[in-house]
Amino acid sequence: MRRSGILMHISSLPSRYGIGKLGASAYQFADFLKKSGVSVWQILPLSPTSYGDSPYQSFSAYAGNPYFIDFEQLEEQGLLEHTDYADANWGSPNKVDYERLYQMCFPILKKAFQAFDRTNPDYVAFCEKHRAWLPDYALFMALKFAHHGKAWTEWEPELAMRNAESLQKARSKYIEDVQFFQVIQYWFYSQWDKLKTYCNENGISLIGDMPIYVSYDSVEVWSQPELFELDRQHRPIAVAGCPPDVFSPTGQLWGNPLYDWDYHKKTGYAWWIQRLAFATSIYDTVRIDHFRGFESYYSIPYGNPTAEIGEWRKGPNTALFKAAQAALGDLSIIAEDLGFITPEVQKMLDACGYPGMKVTQFAFSDGAKNTYLPQNYKTTNCVAYTGTHDNMTLNGWVYGASDKEISFAKRYLRVRDRKDLPESMLRITWGSIADLAIGQVQDFLQEPANARMNTPSTAFGNWQYRTTAKQFNHKLSKKIYQLNALYNRLPEEEDSAAETDTKEIEQED
Questions:
Q1: Helix (H) or strand (E) holding 135
Q2: Whole-number pLDDT of residue 505
Q3: In which band, very low, low, confident or very high, does the pLDDT at 340 lie, cut at 50, 70 and 90?
Q4: For a designed S-S bond to 36, which of 51, 421, 439, 477 qualifies (C-beta 3.0 to 4.6 A apart)?
């Protein structure tokens, strides 16, 4: 079945409180999607942000972002007064101010925590259900706050190296803070589960994003060092990144610790199976970032200032996913297969059978044989994107691409004026044979270059994009609905009622 989706992270939802929330605006956006004939909502990782405010650099592979917790729902539960949060200065409505959120959100959540009944049976059941990760995460965060946000490598050696007696003393000393961070996760996942249920009941499936790597300053590396390539002092031996290319002369130095794949193999990939089981329980489909890293990954010696010196090393390949399928059954996964794809990587992708990605912004650089051009798609089992969170907006792309790319795009799309390219790029994405077509919300809103979500290889100034409620109006909804009708991407129940008069569609545009 042909479907369509919109990519917009929770952080970008309309909100009066500094960042998008799991509250009314999330439900209103779900209603907007349904009205527009869109059946998929894709988001970025829900995890707490850390270095560079990136959801791909998180303190936990499991925890939810406290900033997304909806204060209004806590007020309805009698845990907050409206004045506790509504009268505060949350900054500009045009972008996320993460420093302000860090300073303001936790005191408000702490006040709600003080009014919360920790004997609540639902809360007790939640803690039991998530006992595999929640206690360590809550202790990790309690210790991080006690150390004024410092990385675990800067704590006292006995805590950094997890001396059993020291950890027990810390649990007793910081018991209130430990429970605070557990309650935060209970609130987060209670609100997320409620939103996911609403979306699913309205015919909208949710695609979530799983980073392949975890942050060095994370509870996973602190509590389970055996999973990673670390020395006896738990320092990385090598870190992740990408080698130099035409876009990045010094490569991309991500800095994440690499996995000890020999250890994972000995355990039957137990940690990965647990992680995939969790991800597929909170999302309908999981997009795995940097999927090619399971075939081979770029290893950079720890301490190198750039990614110029490194080597490719072999990963687990299909063995991990065969083990996951045996344990969990068939999984709904999208493989992020962008970048340098070797025949070996392609063989792994084909063996797994997961849909890969096609990005329209990449389609105009190599002439008519470019694999991202719709006529060169080899299968319907793929997802066509106007762009990802790492791409420029379409409006930004047309003024930043090379003259050669623009010239070819104009000829290919039969467009004379550069300003008309974004609309045509959106249309060929929807008109492709891909089972699923997804556009960044910025491309439907015709946002300029400064609305970009992330610029790779830059540490700051990203992940700040926000929308306003008035942008999601009837005119836009009708336009998207007609686009879905024209390219046969409406949900099945909408097909019979669809208006597919192309003259009307052109007039609407």
A1: helix 134-146
A2: 41
A3: confident
A4: 477
Q: What's the DSSP call for residue 79?
A: S
Are 72 and 22 contacting, i.e. CB atoms less than 8 angstroms apart? no
The yes-or-no verdict on residue 506 having pLDDT over 80 is: no
Cβ-in-10-Å burial (0-12, 13-18, 19+) of 167 comes to: middle
Single-letter amino acid code for the residue at 48? P
Provide the pairing of β-strand 238-242 with 252-257: antiparallel
- Planar angle of CA 254, 260, 261, nearest 5 degrees: 110
CA distances from 255 to 155, 228, 243, 498 (A): 20, 13, 13, 49
3-state helix, strand, coil in the chain (%, to 5): 50, 10, 40
Segment 263-306, tens digit of pLDDT: 999 999 999 999 999 999 999 999 999 999 999 999 999 999 99
Question: CB-based burial of residue 105 (10 Å sphere; 0-12 exposed, 13-18 middle, 19+ buried)?
Answer: buried
91/17 Cα distance (integer angstroms): 8
Token digits for 81? Answer: 């007064």
Q: Report in angstroms the alpha-carbon separations of 415 from 370, 407, 419, 420.
A: 19, 10, 9, 7
Encoded tokens for 40: 């998929």
> pLDDT for 477-500, tens place per residue?
999 999 999 999 999 876 555 554
One-letter amino acid at 112 equals: A
| Residues designated catalytic | 289, 336, 390
Q: Please write the tens of the pLDDT for every residue from 21-77.
A: 999 999 999 999 999 999 999 999 999 998 889 999 999 999 999 999 999 999 999
Beta-strand pair 311-314/333-335: unpaired
The model's pLDDT over 94-103, given as tens digits with 9 standing for 90+, comes to 999 999 999 9
Beta bridge partner(s), residue 3: 436
Q: How many CB atoms lie within 10 A of CB 371?
A: 12
Instruction: Identify the residue whose tokens are 């059978």.
Output: 353
- Residue 207: CB atoms within 10 A of its CB come to 20
User: Could you tell me the two tokens for 322?
Assistant: 């065969």
